[in-house]
From TrEMBL:
Family membership noted in the UniProt record: In the C-terminal section; belongs to the NAD synthetase family.
Annotated NCBIfam families: nadE
Source species: Melittangium boletus DSM 14713
Pfam hit, one: NAD_synthase
Gene that specifies this protein: nadE
Enzyme class, first EC level, given as a word: ligase
Protein name: Glutamine-dependent NAD(+) synthetase
Record-listed ATP binding positions: 354-361, 469
Binding site for L-glutamine: 119, 188
Length: 629
């Protein structure tokens, strides 16, 4: 047996906070070393934080990472552990996103990221250069390039994030060149259902290339991107261990690398592919001998036996239901996003919400409170403020619902009527129109803007974080007010569809039993900016609206194709009405781009987000002519 104890670390880092990021990593490194961890794996861009975006164009942002890497090496010099962590370097006019191998007080090598994504929320290709097969450079006396590392426990390969997602990534040539253990440093943002995809992809790579993979992901939220942490160890396609997500810390597991080599000898397909690759390429990745640098402590390790005591019977099923997994993941992600924005900006003392008694502001409050329970368990409500700002159209039911949930959560609650200011603004608008009458939509917008203005005034004077509460579905079709309910410092649920908002509230009602949630759900959803206003009556049923959004913005179907899909999905809706919904959605979506590009920074939880800088890059000035057959 050749036992190796792996440690996978999740460190909540802040972009640019080099010393603090390394301090947090050192804390975990010390603990891992005390547990005789053989290899400790940290995340991509550990020192600089991710995503750095154009900050890497500042020479100091890149150059000043190196002293912190050297400090990490110095302070772990006495540890019998090999560490791999992410750092950026600038070499000969090019910038590289690297995995640094550290042991025995030295930086032993740097391996640049090769696959640089420029899709979705990623812009790596804009700011970094690619590592290349056969690359062999020296940076500050340290080998930089396409390298493997031999230690007393075996041969290690390091790679960065996207390198593992391509079947044509560096893992192929490195395992064919002798790598047994591949460590991947990642900064892969949270997306709904992504953990299952990661698990499957890693298992596929480990089976394809007959190796042991240790994958460690970034944790924390930076600029709306949420990283859920966690990690996976997979040996030759077999899951070994999985690190919990959404928590800072590390996780350990023992693997037998002799098993990896034995399975290679038994797998005739892998052997044939290896022979063909060597014959066709002839390129072997060089192995640096590091066996004299550090002597790992592995004599106390024990063979990894199943915790339930059987190699043949399945372990107890501890998986969550699909409903619980979806809801808890979204709620954990959004509360982490709110909390990290609040803490890392270091600009705010408290969080505030315009609590309308409706679904969107309720969910936003519950998410913020979820963070507050973790940050200040003795008095979570003390971190929050709720303001109910009624007009003549506000109902007693919504006021009661808002007041009830605030009381249940222990959140200070204030009623601040806008009626007097509403009358004044209406009169001023008529004056500016030369005595003309204000349109109904303007009457609604005045109310929304008064509420936003008051929230900003409160924010400016209290050091409060003004949380914007709008959902993705209504934002997509412009059912929102510029300068009003579209405003805030952070848009918490701006990328959560309305049907998901309601699903989450149903789930939270089941879990908590809060009477305030029940009261909100008892009333039809509507903004209460006019008499008896119901959102689905003014737009369309929310399930149809969300389906339209997915098909048009996600699947990129034109209206005629959307109609064909929706006719199958909603056979109970008459054809003419369904066609009208499709045409209405397409028209409103394209007309509303100018609105949602002005929205505040939003939290990302899916591949389809309304954020022009991150996901859906659409021109503001456009015509809908192309949508017609």
């Amino acid at each position: 047996m050749r036992l190796v104890k792996m440690g996978l670390a999740s460190v909540n880092v802040t972009v640019g906070a080099f010393a603090r990021n390394v301090d947090r990593a050192l804390e975990q490194a010390r603990q891992m070393a005390a547990e005789d961890v053989t290899v400790g794996v940290f995340q991509e861009a550990l020192i600089g934080g991710y995503p750095p975006e154009d900050l890497v164009q500042w020479r100091g942002f890149v150059e000043n990472q190196w002293p912190q890497l050297e400090r990490f090496a110095r302070e772990t010099a006495s540890f019998a552990t090999v560490f791999v962590l992410g750092v950026a370097v600038a070499h000969q006019g090019l910038r590289y996103n690297c995995a640094a191998i550290v042991a025995g007080g030295r930086v032993l090598g740097l391996v640049p990221k090769e696959k640089l994504p420029t899709y979705g929320i990623f812009y790596d290709g804009r700011t970094f250069s690619r590592g290349t097969p056969g690359m062999r450079e020296t940076y500050r006396g340290v080998p930089l390039g396409d390298l493997l590392f031999r230690f007393d426990f075996g041969v290690l390969a390091a790679e960065v994030c996207e390198d593992i997602w391509s079947p044509d990534g560096p893992m192929r040539r490195r395992t064919y060149s002798g790598a047994e253990l591949v460590v991947n440093l990642s900064a892969s943002p949270f997306r709904v259902g992504q953990s299952d995809s990661r698990r499957e992809q890693i298992a596929t790579r480990a089976a394809d290339f007959q190796c042991t993979i240790a994958y460690s992901n970034a944790l924390g939220s930076n600029d709306g991107l949420i990283f859920d942490g966690g990690g996976y160890i997979n040996q030759n396609g077999k899951p070994v261990a999985e690190e919990p997500r959404f928590r800072q810390g590390y996780f350990t597991a023992v693997v037998d690398l002799d098993r990896t080599l034995r399975l290679r000898t038994e797998n005739t397909t892998w052997r044939s592919d290896h022979e063909a690759w060597v014959h066709a390429n002839g390129l072997r990745v060089p192995i640096l001998d590091c066996t004299q640098v550090v002597t790992t402590r592995r004599e106390g390790l024990r063979y990894p036996v199943p915790a339930h005591g059987s190699f043949f019977l399945p372990s107890p099923d501890t998986r969550r239901s699909g409903r619980e997994a979806l809801c808890e993941d979204i709620l954990d992600a959004l509360s982490l996003g709110v909390g990290d924005y609040f803490e890392k900006t270091r600009a705010f003392k408290v969080m505030g919400i315009a609590l309308s008694g409706g679904r969107d502001s309720l969910l936003t409050l519950l998410i913020a409170h979820r963070y507050a329970k973790r940050a200040r368990p003795e008095n979570p409500g003390g971190l929050l403020r709720a303001f109910y700002m009624p007009s003549r159209y506000s109902s007693d039911a919504t006021r009661d619902a808002a007041e009830t949930i605030a009381r249940e959560l222990g959140v200070p609650f204030q009623v601040v009527p806008i009626e007097e200011a509403f009358d004044r603004e209406m009169e001023i608008a008529r004056t500016m129109l030369g005595g003309g009458e204000v349109t109904p939509i303007t009457e609604q917008n005045i109310q929304a803007r008064l509420r936003a203005q008051r929230m900003w005034n409160w924010s400016n004077s209290s050091g409060g974080l003004f949380l914007q509460t709008g959902n993705m579905s209504e934002r997509a079709v412009g059912y929102t007010t510029i300068g009003g309910d579209l405003m805030g410092a952070l848009a918490v649920i701006a990328n959560v569809p309305k049907t998901v908002v309601m699903y989450l509230l149903d789930y939270l009602l089941e879990q908590t039993g809060y009477e305030g949630i029940r009261k909100v759900l008892a009333k039809p959803a509507g903004p209460e900016l006019a008499h008896n206003q119901v959102g689905e009556e003014e737009l369309m049923p929310f399930p149809i609206l969300d389906a339209c959004f997915f098909l048009f913005a996600g699947e990129k179907l034109v209206p005629s194709e959307m109609f064909d899909a929706l006719a199958v999905m909603f056979p109970q809706v008459e054809s003419a009405r369904l066609k009208g919904y499709v045409e209405k959605f397409s028209r409103l979506f394209l007309q509303s781009i100018y609105k949602w590009v002005q929205a505040p920074l939003s939290l990302h939880i899916g591949n389809l987000d309304l954020d022009r800088e991150r996901a859906l890059q659409l021109p503001v000035v456009t015509s809908s002519d192309w949508t017609r057959d």
